[in-house]
Write a structure and sequence with these properties.
The structure holds 2 protein chains of 2 kinds. Chain A is of the alpha+beta class. Chain A is about 25% helix and about 35% strand. Helices cover about 80% and strands about 0% of the residues of chain B. In chain B, helix 9 runs antiparallel to helix 12. The chains are: A alpha+beta, B mainly alpha. Chains A and B meet through strand 7 and helix 5 of A and helix 7 and helix 8 of B.
Chain lengths: ~375, ~220
């Protein structure tokens, strides 16, 4: 158990099933990621003391906020958390300034006003102090909520999908502001989101939650590219998940050889899986390279695979395509390309293409005991 | 014009509102936010006076307050006065009869407060009292005002329960509604008419005040 930062170990079976273990150090931003209904918000509310769970402990900076066994349960007021709610929870009858000042009720009236004004200035809301929340834009409301959450100099800052209620342009601006503000924050920050890009952009660490259970924690890029189980792979949005057999390891070259649909693939060395064992492998789209028609590149020597374009969907400046390898009845590989690359290579439905699966991106996972989701999703 | 009856009615309405305001806030909050076994039964019981004929309620209250009942005996021992046919008895009846008129608007008022707002108050470090005073009451104000007006106006106009429990003792239980009935029985149309007009004006003033206040609040929010 750490003396500084937040240490959460909570469990219950009802009303919302939970089995959560997470840590967040001082100044660290932990993204709690999972699909809707996975219990992310409940975890945040349990940390704040807004809901009580049945078992476990919550310790912050060496102080026990909650201990089911020892019958310790601090009130939200005593825990001193900053909480930015999904819809901000601003007091609708109070002005922006009064909203922030309300969180400073332990100071004198003059101090409250001065400090609240300063906080609003820090979130670029000077001049809007006397506005009621409904006369502020979504982004401005979010800033008031952040200023109010920081007003008490909280032990922990909790952000519950704070960017979900604003338009995309505002969201991108708020990302930058949060990233900038973070440099000054010394407390643990937990951000609940279902947006993986948000987690990648803002978080130091990421924790994947499903059905109330924490499945994997780590650096966001590691979790996304190297999930522990097929279930996590699916939760972090990996589409290319297949079964294979381990052939051998070459420790000198740093390669593990696997057999997939009768062909041998080279993967990054993952010696934990014994030769002969069945595994599930996944590859993020960024590690699949399209062979250029005009000139071959070095990458083409790495796990070259021939296939036929199945679906081709344009998503803004990018194209998402599926490539059928072997025959169309088996699950395809998915990759994403910039539109100009797709255009230059004449990519369209039914066209034969060559692709390379970069060995570095081929990640192996246990082939059994991966949970029902993993067993269902992993294709041959 | 029976000024004594009008004063008594205003006194009864004032006390009823004064008692029901804290009771309504407490029960209204409880029903708005808490889930507990038997909640629907409690809500149904509280709404019963809305559908029960006033004479039926009056009958049961009279039985409950009579000298033979434990409540009546206890009150008699305590004060030396009987509870039935007294102002105190009338007040008890009025409070019970007005429970739905006070609690239901307040419950709706508290239900309208977003849960996130209450959670935010706790996370801002506000104590339960400060949350009630600074956040909940200002936001539930339209419900509180409706409860106030409905209870006040309804008490002024109540006839059946008052007649059953209070009778018509001048200065003690004879409210203006009873006085109007008495004057009508005596074919004193002028007095009945002036008192009816007085009651109409008081009720109109109360309901107008309620509409003006909530309307002004609404406009301010829409600014």
């Amino acid at each position: 158990m750490t003396d500084s930062g937040l240490d959460v170990r909570i469990a219950q079976t009802a009303p919302v099933p939970l089995r959560v273990e997470l840590k967040c150090g001082p100044g660290e931003l932990l993204a709690l990621v999972g699909p809707s209904g996975s219990g992310k918000s409940t975890v945040l509310r349990a940390i704040a003391g807004l809901v009580n769970v049945r078992e476990g402990t919550i310790v912050c900076n060496g102080r026990t906020w909650f201990d089911a066994g020892g019958h310790v349960c601090w009130t939200p007021q005593r825990r001193r958390v900053g909480f930015v709610f999904q819809h901000y929870g601003l007091f609708p009858h109070l002005t922006a300034l009064e909203n922030v000042a309300e969180a400073l009720s332990d100071r004198s009236v003059d101090e409250r006003r001065t400090y609240a004004t300063e906080l609003l200035r820090r979130v670029h809301l000077d001049g809007l102090e006397s506005r009621l929340p409904h006369r502020l834009s979504g982004g401005q409301q979010q800033r008031v909520a952040v200023a109010r959450a920081l007003a008490r100099e909280p032990n922990v800052l909790l952000l519950d999908e704070p960017f979900s209620a604003v338009d995309r342009a505002t969201r991108e601006r708020l990302y930058l502001e949060l990233a900038e503000m973070r440099k000054e924050l010394e407390m643990p920050v937990i951000l609940v989101t279902h947006d993986l890009d948000e987690a990648l952009l803002l978080a130091d660490r990421m924790c994947v939650l499903s059905h109330g259970e924490t499945l994997q924690s780590g650096a966001p890029y590691d979790v996304i590219t190297r999930p522990d189980t097929p279930q996590v792979a699916q939760l972090v949005g990996l589409k290319n998940i297949f079964r294979a057999g381990v052939i051998a390891h070459d420790t000198d070259k740093g390669i593990t050889y696997i057999e997939w649909r009768g062909r041998r693939l080279e993967a990054r060395l993952q010696a934990a899986y014994a030769p002969g064992s069945q595994v599930v492998w996944a590859i993020p789209p960024a590690f699949i390279v399209l062979h250029r028609r005009d000139r071959p590149s070095r990458g083409e020597r790495e796990n070259p695979v021939q296939g036929v374009v199945g679906n081709f969907v344009r998503l803004g400046e990018n194209a998402l395509l599926s490539v059928h390898v072997d025959d169309a009845s088996r699950p395809p590989l998915f990759l994403s390309l910039p539109m100009h690359v797709a255009r230059r290579n004449g990519i369209e439905k039914g066209v034969a293409v060559g692709i390379s699966l970069l060995a570095e991106g081929i990640h192996l996972m246990p082939g059994s005991g991966a949970g029902p989701l993993g067993r269902r999703r992993a294709a041959a | 014009m029976d000024w004594e009856a009008l004063t008594l009615s205003l006194r009864l309405a004032g006390w009823t509102v004064l008692i029901l305001l804290p009771v309504g806030i407490w029960i209204g909050r409880l029903l708005a936010w808490r889930h507990f076994p038997g909640k629907m039964v409690v809500e149904a019981m509280l709404a019963l006076p809305l559908v029960l004929p006033p004479t039926v309620l009056g009958y049961y209250l009279l039985v409950a307050m009579g000298g033979a009942s434990p409540l009546g005996q206890w009150y008699q021992q305590l004060t030396g006065q009987p509870l039935a046919f007294s102002f105190a008895g009338l007040l008890v009846a009025s409070v019970l009869f007005n429970l739905p008129f006070a609690i239901q608007p307040m419950q709706r008022g508290f239900e309208a407060i977003a849960p996130e707002v209450r959670d935010a108050a706790a996370c801002c470090g506000l104590s339960a009292w400060r949350t009630l005073w600074r956040i909940e009451l200002p936001l539930a104000w339209p419900g509180l005002l409706s409860a106030f007006v409905l209870t006040f106006a309804h008490t002024l106009g109540e006839f059946g329960v008052v007649l059953m429990v209070g009778g018509s003792i001048p200065g003690e239980t004879k409210t203006i509604a009873i006085a109007i009935y008495d004057r009508m029985q005596a074919l004193d149309m002028a007095a009945a008419g002036s008192m009816s007009l007085a009651l109409l004006l008081v009720s109109l003033a109360a309901i107008s005040a309620s509409y003006v206040t909530t309307g002004r609040r609404g406009r301010r929010r829409d600014d």
